[in-house]
Amino acid sequence: MKKRFALALAAALSASSASAQAADDGSGLMEKGLELFLDGLRQEMSPALENMRKLAEEYGPAIASFLEQMGPAFGEMLEDVKDWSAYEPPEILPNGDIILRRKQMPDSETPPVEPPPPGQTDI
């Protein structure tokens, strides 16, 4: 979604420079208005696009590595879990294990699962 938006924005910005050249040749008010609109949009979006670029530089390699190594298993999990709202956010245990706990539903008949005591891992 963000990638599509960035591509559309880049296309619009490149069209802006082309319309600027046409405006010098005596083009109509619509072209000049479009040029002003796109210039304003470029100025407004510049900080957000810069932040996105920095995030991509910072987290891109780690995300690519994660998807390469864990992608198939993660894909299987995505197929098995139909409702992510039924789970708590991931939790990292002291031993480095990452777990996803199911939220306690008020009308659930299953007893709550207690976390293991600190320093002990439940297998």
Any overview of this molecule?
The chain has 123 residues and is mainly alpha-helical. It has a domain at 2-71. Helix content is 61%, strand content 3%. It has helices spanning 2-24, 29-80; strands at residues 91-92, 98-99. Strands 1-2 form a two-stranded antiparallel ribbon. Strand 1 (91-92) and strand 2 (98-99) form a beta hairpin. Helix 1 runs antiparallel to helix 2 (29-80). It is elongated, with a radius of gyration of 25 Å. The model has no long low-confidence stretch (mean pLDDT 77). This is AAA+ family ATPase. Residues 1-22 form the signal peptide. Residues 101-123 are annotated as: Disordered. It comes from Sedimentitalea xiamensis. Keywords: Signal.
Structure summary:
Residues 112-123 have a biased composition (Pro residues). Residues 101-123 are annotated as: Disordered. The chain has 123 residues and is mostly helical.
